[in-house]
Every structure is written in structure tokens, then in C-alpha cells.
Amino acid sequence: MADSIVSFVVAKLGDLIAQEIVFLQEVADRLRSLRDEFQWMQAFLKDADGSIKRGNERAKLWVSQVRDVAYDAEDIIDTYIYKIHQQRRRSSTLTNCITSTSQLTILHELGNQIANVKKRAEEISANRSKYGIESVGGTSSDISIITTTTMSFNRKQNHLDVEEADVVGFDKHVKTLVKLLITAEDQGPHQRQQLAVISIVGMGGLGKSTLAKKVCSNPDVKRHFNCQALVYVSQAFKTREILERIAKCAMAMSEKKMKELSQEKLKEEICEYLKERRYLVVLDDVWTRDAWDMIKDVLPEVINGSRVLLTTRNSDVGVYADRQSPLFKLQNLGEDESWDLFCKKAIHPTNSMEKYCPSHLESIGKEMVAKCGGLPLAIVVLGGLVSRKEQTVVEWRKVLKSLKWQLQEGEDQISPILDLSYHHLPYYLKPCFLYFAIFPEDEIIDPNSLIRLWIAEGFVQARGEETLEEVAEDYLQELVQRSMIQVAMEANYFRDGVVYQIHDLILDLSISQAKVDNFLHVPKNSKEENSLHKTRRLALNGNEMNSYIAAGKYSTNSSQSLRTITCMDMKVRTSKMLGFLHDMKLLRVLNLHGTFIKKLPSDIGKLIHLRYLGLRWTIIKTLPSSIAELTNLQTLILVRSSINVLPRGLWKMGNNLRHLEGYIFSIKGTPSVESLPNLQTLSSVKVGPWLLNGLGKMTSLRKLSILEVTDTYAEPLLDCLGKLNNLNYLSWKASFDGIVPSSLLSTSQSHLRRHLQLQEVSLTGRIVGLPESNRMNACITKLSLILSKLEEDPLVTLGKLGNLQFLDLIDAFVGEEIVCLERGFPQLKELALRRFDSLERWKIEDQAMPKLRHLFLSNCQKLVMLPDGLERITSLQELTVVNMPDSFNQRLRVDEGEDWGVIRHIPSVTITMRSLGLFIEDQEKHQ
Questions:
Q1: Burial group, residue 64, by CB count within 10 angstroms (0-12, 13-18, 19+)
Q2: Which among 149, 161, 641, 905 has most CB atoms closer than 10 A?
Q3: Contact 797/812 with Cβ under 8 angstroms?
Q4: pLDDT band at 568 (very low <50, low <70, confident <90, very high)
Q5: Which helix (H) or strand (E) holds 798?
Q6: CA 99 remoteness from chain centre
Q7: Considering only CA atoms, which of 683, 638, 678, 637 is closest in space to residue 655?
């Protein structure tokens, strides 16, 4: 973590020198010297990244001191910039003499502070060699920290695994993997016998190793492979040890012979031996591509059905090892599976017939198990802990109250297993991961919000010609690949993109590590005092934190170091919040989500370092005029707030504003010559005079949502769109009587020819008719047509869009019959038909919608029955029926309805009547 902090300070020093070189004069040399010192520290920390062992107290102390001095340097720089900004604001009313005196005072103070920090930095650098904290070796993979006692993580000795016996829910996984290993794939007589690598992927503690062992012990696997080897690779692997393990397991080679062979000779013997056999090599706990590269040389590419079974936390490693074999992604246990596993480990049966938890303990037990989040390792640890307690309500309640501590610090210690995932992250991902600590448990995480926060915090560094958002998206995907965060829900027609969730135990890891690194403080309760020195970030979640703000738990010194305040779902009094924020002059992020405050500080413009301002779900009605002074602001979120007009000062906010999301708002005034050229998101804004001179200049726009478009503004708006070459999302909502131009879906019009990258389109309002199919924008992947009231069947034309994946139609057709033509909608995954008031008949022709996963039908009151041909869509996983006629619903009844044969192949069928609040049927896995 310290390396990313130092990196940030180095960048700030460079920016300060470049921007203020004339004014800084002789102090610039001191700043350059300090920057050089930090660059050396930064280089050392990056080289040693991941090599500073947890047990090395000297190294930990040194890193802590580096972090603290870097924080001090950052405070000095930001305070200097703040003071200069304030002084320049007053300069118009002060005499030149006073202005000059003020500048000299600030400059003199800066010089003294820089000198003090430089002296401390030099002392800390000297301590690195003085106390034996040096990096040795030529490459980062060879680096170690010299200590009196070498600390290392021994995979075999310290590995805490899920017990091999009676692992609930693994039998089906074993069957699947056995089939993958021993069954010839249908790829031709030679290809199907080539060496394949099957990778089991998942977060630490899911039981990947246990599953791999169970697969190896399967009788069919033992018969199929006449040569097997199980090898622990681990994070700190040694090639020689791995080779010896393979030689011992596969060849029964003696210790004496192994010692006589050089490493190269050992490789040759293993390779020659395996060439003559159908082998299975299990590589357990592979962390990096380098590890695979060092091992694969001894695994010959024989064409006899040999296999490699690999377990890893990083899906990228699995893909790298074999791009043709699908990953086997191990998921958390379900609720029932988690409970069964817990009972097997926790309950002491008094007789052979007793298998289940006593009824008086069941509710407490299930509450404990829920906190494990389906992680087998945590459930096994919890079961072992409970098994040593009396089976009484009193004893189990004690465990429940201390559960988080027990899981982290108990004698079994899950922490070392999960900690490895964090310590193995590259330096640039560590602050991104720790940032998850700001979220409450079980929070659904929107990737757009997360990415913008990362950028505002300065975690994301420029890379080539990519935008910071594109780089941050790569960061997020890398964390997903490393199993540090999980996909909660995929994109669908109701949601623009994927959303994420973090496992509770991984969240606990981020919170505890963030506290250790002084990175972020998450108070456990409102009575907790701030014991951290110069904490950079504070996360307050839930109404119980109201009294934390009211009590003023943060001292002035602490608040002046804060860069981030995030408050979520707190109905705090406005006066208390304003008082709390009063002394926080260096904030970069202020997120007041759901606080229901009524106004912002009138002098909010003084927060010149502010990059992110989140006012979602507040009841603020107006923004202070000083908002225009926030020239560094990158993201302004007003969604679900009461703000419906933005001040004309918005146009003066400069080049840094990147994302502006509101809730049906308008903008006063008219743009300047170059207004908001770097704006990427403009959401839910009404048309107005600003559009004529402003929108066409926002050439960085990628997402535009525009409201109340009248016929007067339609043509000018179309002209502006022709200049937005980066636009890939467009939402156009016409005024009450306005017409939506069908050319928005076409590439034939000159002003839209350049919009080949426009992929997501939402159009609300009447459309006279769709363009001809050969003129439709073939790049569209997601389309919503709302209140279109088309007179011709839209499915005939839309079915020819070869890349369309999500289609949502709401009151889009006034006719009686629709048809999905043969081979239509080749890529469609989700289809929603809502409020088709006149629709009576629907037909699906052969091979239409071959990839459809979810069908949603709602409020089609004249539709008699499901279409013929639906039974041929074998890909369909979900059917959701809402507010459909009772006669329609009766046809879908299990085994009895006339349409049961059409839907019996669908795993999940849900039928509801929302208007009555009545749940009729939820049919799950009914086959």
C-alpha cells in the first residue's frame, strides 16, 4: 500500500513544480530533492512488493514510517495549494503590498515544512540499510527481505483446507470434472486426445483443493490414468521442489536418485517418463502465469488423453494455461448446502438416527451460517468451533455475538488463507481492493460509481491513449479474475450493466487491512473514538452512525487530514452535517448518499481539491453558486435528489468534469467557447438553449440521456449527435406530443453515419415507422422502445439485428399479431414485451432466438396463449409472467395447463399478479 501512496505524492510534487515554477523560486529545488527521495522509496517498494513478509516487524515498521512521511508531504502540498487559492481569491480586494507579503509568508512556511519532511525522509531511507531492510537479487521474483529469522508461508504446513470427507454439494462437481477428464470431447479423432488443462477457479476457502483431491481419488479417474501426481505449487513456489514432487508421485523416484540429478536432467527424465503414459498431473494453488510456464515444460504434449487439473484463485491463469478448455468456476454453497455442511461438523448426535440440528438451536445456527456467506472453509471452521460448545441456546448465542472475531482470530484462523489473496495483489490493485471497505455488508456495487471513486482518489494511472475509466475497468476485471469480488447480477433489460458484490469475509479483510494501513476507518459503532492518526478516509454507514457525527468524534487534527467522507443511508440533521464538514478543507471525495440533508455549505467552493460529489437520495433543492469554483470536480451525482436546475456557473467548471448525472434537471445559462470538453456522461438533462451552442462541443461524451425533446429541438439535437464520435449510449425521451426520429436507429442518415459505435439505445415516444432492416444500425446490442406505438410488427425488422442481445418493448406496437421470423434474433439473450394492449397472437418460426435465456411478459391483456415454437428454444432458462390474464396463467399450470408442454423444459417459471399483490406460482427446477 505504501508504494501507491508514495507514487501519488511523487506525481503531486511533479505537478506542483510544473504549475508553480515561477512563484516557487528557490523552494522548487527543495521540492525536486524531496521528489527524488520519494522516487527512490517508490522504486524499492515496487521491487519488494509482495516480498515483505507478515512476520517481518522491522520491514513493517519501515513501511509504516514511509507511509506517514508521504502523508505529511501530501498534506503540505495540498494545504499550500489551498492557501494559495484562498489568497488569490482575496487578491482583488487587497493591496499589492499585502498580497506580496501573504505570498512570501506562505512560501516561507512551505520551505520550512519541505525541509523538515526531507530530513525525515532521508533518515527513514538510511534506516533501511541500517536495520537490514534491503532488497537483494536481480529481479523482483528473487527479492527477499533480510531478517534474523526468515519468514515464509509454507503451503503444506499452514494450509487450512476444507475436510475431504462429507463435503456437501461437491458430488455433482466431481461428476462434472471426472467427465471432463476422461470423456473424449467431440472434436475429431486427434484433437480430442490432445493434452488439456482443466482449471478449477474460485476465491480462497471455497474448497478447490478438496475438490481436486476428491476427483483424483475417484475410481474411474484412477482406472483411466495410469500415472498421477498431486503437486502443491503455492504462492512461494520453488521449481526444484515441484519437479521432485512430480518425480516422486508419478515415477516413485527415490530421494537419493533425485539428489544426484541436476534440475535440467530431472526435467528430461520426467518428460521422457510421461511421454509413454496417459497421465494426470494436479497442480494445486497456482498463482501466476510464471508458475505455469516453469512447470509446463515437463508436461509433454502427448496425444493420448493426458490431462492437467489446475486450481487457482486467478481465472487469468486458467485461461492462459489452456484457452480452449472452459474454466470450472466454483461457486459459494447455497443456503441448504451450507446448513447441511454446518450440521455435519457441529452436531454431536446422541444416537445413530440423529442427523439434524436440535429445533431449539436451529434459528441461531442458521443465523451463524448465513454470516459465512456460503464459504465452505468458514462453515467448517464455524462447525468445529460450535462442536466444542455445549448444545444450549446460551452457548450458541455467545458464539453468534463473537462470530466475526471467531472466524478471523480463532485457533483455526481463516485469515492466513484469505490474506494471501490481498498480499499477492500488484501494488496498483491494493488501494482499489481496500476501497471496498467503504461499502456496507451485502451491498450491491455499481461498477460505474466504483470506477469514478477510484479515479477521484487518484488510484488509476494514465496508460497510453486509454481513458482513465477504461484503465479502471481493467483493474476491476482483474479483481474479478482474482476472485476478490464476485458478479452479483448480469446485465439485463432493466439494468445497464453487470453489478458486483463482495463476500463478507473478504470485506472484513479489506476493512481490517485498511485500518492497519491507516487507509480508511470504518467505525463499528457510534461510540467508537477515532484512534487513528491522520486517517485519510472515513466511511459511515447506516442510521446508527448519526450520533457519531453529532458527537464530533473527529478531532480538528484528524479532520484536516481526511480526504474522503462517505456517508450512506443516514438521515442526519443538516446542521450537524454542516458542522461536521466545517474544518475539512482537503477533501477529494464527498459522498452523502441517502443522508437526506437539505443543503450544502454555502462556501463549498473552497474545497478546491474535491473530485467527487455524490448527492444521491438527498433532499437538497439548489446548489450554492460557489459550486462553480470546484474546477477540479470530476463527478457530480444528483440522481434521486431534489435538484432540478443547475446554476449557470456549471459552464465555468473547466476541463475536469467527466460525469454529470441528475434526475430530470435543466441547466441555466449558455455555454462558453469550450464548455466541458472532457464530459463523458450527461444523464437525465432536459433540452434547452444550452444545447444549441454546447452539446456539439462535448466531443468526449460516451453516455447521453436527454429528456423532453420537442420537435423544435429534434433537428438541432440530431446535428449535435453527428459530432459526438465517441457516443455509445443514447437515451432520447420525446415531449408529450413529440415524435422520435426513426433515423436514430439508422446509419443511412449523414449525421449518424459515424455512429457505428452506438451500441445501447433507449427511445421513448411515438415513432412513425422503423427504418428498413438493411439500414438499421447493426452494432446495437441493447434496445428499448417505449410508447413507440408502431403500426407495423417491430419484431420482423428488429429480428435482423445480428448483434442485438437485450430487447425491451413497452407499449411499442398497436397491432394484433407479432412474428419472430425464421433465424431471427440470432444473438438475443433477453426479451421483454410489456403493455401490448392489442396483441392477441404471437408466432415463433423455426430457429428463431436460439440463444434466448429470459422471456418477460407483462400486461398483455388480450394475449391468449404462449406462442407455438417456444418449446424449441432449449436455451431458455427463465420465464417471468406479470399481470397477465387469468385465462393465460391457467394454461401454464404444472402438468395440467394446455401450454405446460411448451414450457416444461424451462428451469424457472414465475407467475405473479402485481396489481393484487398476489404471488401465484414460482416453479423452480420442476423437471
A1: middle
A2: 641
A3: no
A4: confident
A5: helix 794-798
A6: 48
A7: 678
Cβ distance 731 to 701 under 8 Å? no
The Cα–Cα gap between 452 and 616 comes to 15
Band of the pLDDT at 159, cuts 50, 70, 90? very low
Give the sign of the dihedral formed by CA 746, CA 751, CA 757, CA 762.
Answer: negative
Which cell is 753 given?
Answer: 453515419
Q: Which residues of 90-121 are buried (b: 16+ CB within 10 A; e: fewer)?
A: eeeeeeeeebeebbeebbeebbebbeebbebb
Distance CA 279, CA 291 (A): 20
Identify the CA nearest to 811 among candidates 850, 861, 777: 861
CA dist., res. 389 & res. 873, Å (int): 53
> How many residues in the chain?
927
Residue 509 to residues 333, 407, 409, 514: CA-CA distances in angstroms? 20, 11, 12, 8
- Choose between 752 and 302: higher pLDDT: 302
Q: Which has the closest alpha carbon to 688: 700, 706, 661?
A: 706
Rounded distance, CA 625 to CA 611, Å? 17
C-alpha cell at 491: 446485465
CA distances from 874 to 368, 848, 851, 877, 902 (A): 39, 11, 8, 8, 11
Whether the CA torsion 454, 458, 463, 468 is positive or negative: it is positive
Assess contact for 634 and 658: CB atoms under 8 A.
yes
Angle of helix 2-24 relative to helix 27-47, nearest 10 degrees?
160
pLDDT mean over 150-169: 41
Cell of 751: 449525421
Contacts of 822 (CB under 8 A, 6+ apart): 845, 846, 847, 848
pLDDT tens, residue by residue, 43-98: 777 665 545 544 567 777 877 788 888 888 888 888 888 888 887 777 654 545 44
Concatenate the DSSP letters of all residues of 82-123 into one string: HHHHHHHHHGGGS-HHHHHHHHHHHHHHHHHHHHHHHHHHHH
**What value does the mean pLDDT take over residues 897-911?**
90
Q: How far apart are CA 776 and CA 195, in angstroms?
A: 45
297: left (phi over 0), alpha (psi -120 to 50) or beta: alpha
Say what the pTM is. 0.78
* CA distances (Å), origin 344, targets 160, 349, 386: 18, 10, 11
**578-594: average pLDDT:** 90
What is the DSSP code string of 307-372? EEEEEES-HHHHHHH-SSSPPEEPPPP-HHHHHHHHHHHH---SSTT--S--HHHHHHHHHHHHTT
> How buried is 601 (Cβ within 10 angstroms: 0-12 exposed, 13-18 middle, 19+ buried)?
middle
Of 256, 257, 264, 209, the residue nearest 240 (C-alpha): 264
DSSP structural state of residue 790: B
* Nine cell digits for residue 473: 475497468
pLDDT tens digits along 384-434? 778 777 888 888 888 787 766 655 544 345 666 677 678 778 889 999 999
b/e string for 830-866 if b means 16 or more Cβ within 10 A? Answer: bbbbbbbeebeebebbeebbeebbbbbbbbbeebebb
Distance in angstroms (rounded) separating the CA atoms of residues 904 and 398: 48
The whole-number average pLDDT for the span 672-696 is 87
Contact criterion met (CB below 8 Å) for 722 and 699: no
pLDDT > 90 in the chain, percent: 32
- Classified as helix, coil or strand, 593 is coil
Q: What pLDDT, in 10s, does the model give residues 177-192?
A: 988 888 754 444 444 5
Q: What is the DSSP letter of 429?
A: T
**Distance separating alpha carbons of residues 882 and 853, to the nearest angstrom:** 17
**DSSP code at position 445:** B
CB 307 within 8 A of CB 196: yes
**Closest by Cα among 749, 732, 751, 748 to 740:** 732
